[in-house]
Amino acid sequence: MTKQIPYTVCKMVPTTCVKRIPYTVCKPVTFTKTIQIPRCVEKCVPYTVTRCIPRCVCKQVPVTVCCPAPSCGAPCPTCSTPLN
Questions:
Q1: Longest Cα pair distance anywhere in the chain, in angstroms?
Q2: Who contacts 63 (Cβ-Cβ below 8 Å, separation ≥6)?
Q3: Residue pLDDT, tens place only, 31-42
């Protein structure tokens, strides 16, 4: 007579587990930056100079002659000025 006894068998089964771990990676990054540098620049700027220069100006002005040239020594009949 045979007797049957139930039993449990353990066996190793390979499994894969995925575990996520946060981490930081440093990588080189190239960039261009524009900066303004103050500098002095010489410029030729035109300018106007006003000068006062003395000069002689001759003008002809009208002259009114009151009496004619003296001829007899008598006073002028127009303006009553004695002619000497």
A1: 198
A2: none
A3: 888 888 888 888
